[in-house]
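Quick illustration for those who missed Monday's session on complexes.
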Amino acid sequence: MRTLFIGGLSALIHSVSTNAHTAAYAKGMYCRGGPNGDNQNANDPVVPLYQLSMEDWWFQHDRGCDLAPPPEDEFLELPAGGSFEVELAHNQAFTTLSFDGEFTSEWPDGGDHPEDWHGPGSPPDCIQEDGALHVQNESMAAGTAFAISYHSELSEVTLENLAVFTVRLHTPWKRVTSYDVPAAMPACPLGGCTCAWLWVPDGCGEPNMYMQGFKCNVTGATATSPVAPARPPVYCEDDLSSCVQGAKQMIVWQQAEGDNIEPSQSKSPGYNPKGLE
Ligand SMILES: *[C@@H]1O[C@H](CO)[C@@H](O)[C@H](O)[C@H]1NC(C)=O
Ligand SMILES: *[C@@H]1O[C@H](CO)[C@@H](O)[C@H](O)[C@H]1NC(C)=O
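Prediction with 2-acetamido-2-deoxy-beta-D-glucopyranose bound:
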């Protein structure tokens, strides 16, 4: 039994390293266990979004994840003025949501790596063993973010009411990753809010984007002012005064429909000061 299982896992690791990428695993996520909810090795949410119609990329409709909400009353909890944790991984198997966490390590691929993990050469080229991270070393990691919509039903969420509220620079990198929650976030409506995990990698592979759904809820809120409508991001590395102030939309990039940012030359936008904020 045990031997068979390990064989299965090495086949899994192989498929992960060749064709999968990274997603945020946590309570409240859509597509836990895959679209049918029964797969401990699910990597459906990690597949990037590339050149898709808006209907297809929006909350990963292309793979049915938008139709696989978490159990009722399960939310990603966002403590106002505090922080929350998710697990960034290439497969649910490498998180504590599967197999009682038996295959987790400090890293998203369940493997062991040096603290200063980097690709070959100097300056380092892309990390080869784990192309899914799309990166040369920690300092080059493009940044990931969460956005929130004060609507309980996914069908009510729009680009304008989904605002980026937290960014973690130099991620994805290690598995356990935390994001800060602004103290000024108001409480969600009775049925909770809808959130999205977001990432735009910078180089080291196909330019693509990630948008993954969560049911979320702000706890301990004291603020009451609603979040302002989100405005499209602007690529502002060359002119910081052109950066958008206040609530911003997610970055829509490299899709067949809906792109909302035009970086200068061949640069990549991202959830970092250089590419967006
Ligand atoms: C990380 O990699 C980039 C790109 O190769 C390089 O410019 C930078 O110096 C590296 N940083 C460290 C701390 O090694
Ligand atoms: C969201 O959190 C608030 C504050 O803890 C709580 O009162 C409310 O019931 C929660 N909403 C849902 C839908 O669980």
